[in-house]
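A favour, since you know our C-alpha cells better than I do. Could you add the entry underneath, on a fresh line?
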Amino acid sequence: MIAINADAETREAYVQNIIRVYDDATPDQEHVGRNWYRTAHDMAEMLADGDARTGAGLLAAFSPQTAWWLNVQLAADAYETGTPRGHVGDALSKAARILAGISPEDVLPMTRKTGQFYLLILDPEDPEAVCIDRHAHDVAVGMAYGDLPRGLSAKGRYALLAHCYREAAQRLGELPSTVQAVTWIVWRDGLVGQGTRGDTFTERD
C-alpha cells in the first residue's frame, strides 16, 4: 500500500500521473467521463420519483462491488418495494435507513468513497468531492494493483489521493470529479482485454 504520509515529491508524481492519463483521453472517453455524474444524477431523480437525495443515497449504498446496471436495478427495486435486497448486510442496512427517512449524510461514510459518490450523484458540480476507488487509486499511483490491497478504508490514504485529484483538477481547470471520471474511463478501457480486472464504474475498492 502507498504511504499515507507521502512526501512532496511523491504527491507531485501522483498529480502528474493523473494529468497524464487525463491528457490521454480520446474525445469519446472525455465525453463519457465529463457527463457521467450528470447522467447518474438524472438516474437518481428518475428512480426515486424526483427525490434526487434519496435516489443518490440508495445508489451510493448499493454501489460497493456492484456493476452500475445492477446498482441501478437494486436501488430502483428498493425504492419501489420499500425492501432493500440483493446485496450484503451492510449495504442493505444503509439502504433501509435511507428509505426510512434518515439523511444519507448520516448513514454513509462521508469522508470515503461511498459518501463522496453520493455527494457527486446528488450534485455533479460539487467542487470538492472526489470518489476514489481502485481505478482512481491506480491512476494516481501509476500502476495496476489488480487484486492487491489498496487500503482505501484508511482516512489518511483516501484524503491523500483526493488531494492529488483536486490539485490535478486545479491545474487542468476542471472539477475534481470530471478529472476522476475521465481518467477512470481511460484507465478501465486500457485494462480491458489485458487480463486485469476492468470494473464497471461502481465496483469499488
User: Anything to note?
Assistant: Confidence is low (pLDDT under 50) at residues 195-205. The chain has one domain: 8-191.
